[in-house]
């Protein structure tokens, strides 16, 4: 239950920040969104109800599925690279949306 509440708070905070006008706030919203999605993927893997993978002590059906862990690792790398790209765009931009266009 605590994990579901944490995922909900992260996604709600991400949506709030993504709807703001500042580019840095949008980037922070994207970071929160990626963290919430990663937690959702990890909770879908069912690690808490199965044993550790690759120990050789249990049958294959009782071991945790390593596929969600691989998805999360890939998602972390992709989110980090997109975050760096978005921060670069925020720094090199001419101005924020809050300034006058004239």
Question: What's the short version?
Answer:
With 102 residues, the chain is mainly α. The protein has 3 helices and no strands. It has one domain (2-49, 64-92).
Describe this entry's structure for a reader.
The protein is mainly alpha-helical and 102 residues long.
Describe the global form: elongated
Ends apart, CA distance between termini? 51 Å
Counting DSSP E segments of at least 2 residues, the number of strands comes to: 0
Radius of gyration: 19 Å
Number of domains: 1
Largest beta-sheet characterization: none
Unreliable runs: none
Report the helical percentage. Answer: 55-70%
Layout of secondary structure:
Elements: H1 2-18, H2 23-44, H3 67-92
Helix pairs in contact: 1-2, 2-3
Keyphrases for this structure?
single chain, 102 residues, 3 helices
């Amino acid at each position: 239950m605590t994990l579901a509440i944490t995922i909900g708070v992260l996604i709600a905070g991400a949506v709030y920040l993504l709807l703001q006008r500042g580019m840095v706030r949008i980037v922070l919203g994207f970071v929160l969104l990626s963290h919430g999605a990663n937690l959702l993927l990890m909770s879908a893997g069912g690690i808490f109800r199965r044993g550790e993978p690759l120990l050789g002590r249990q049958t294959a059906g009782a071991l945790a599925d390593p596929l969600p862990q691989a998805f999360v690792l890939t998602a972390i790398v992709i989110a980090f690279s997109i975050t760096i790209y978005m921060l670069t765009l925020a720094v090199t931009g001419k101005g924020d949306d809050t300034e006058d266009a004239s």
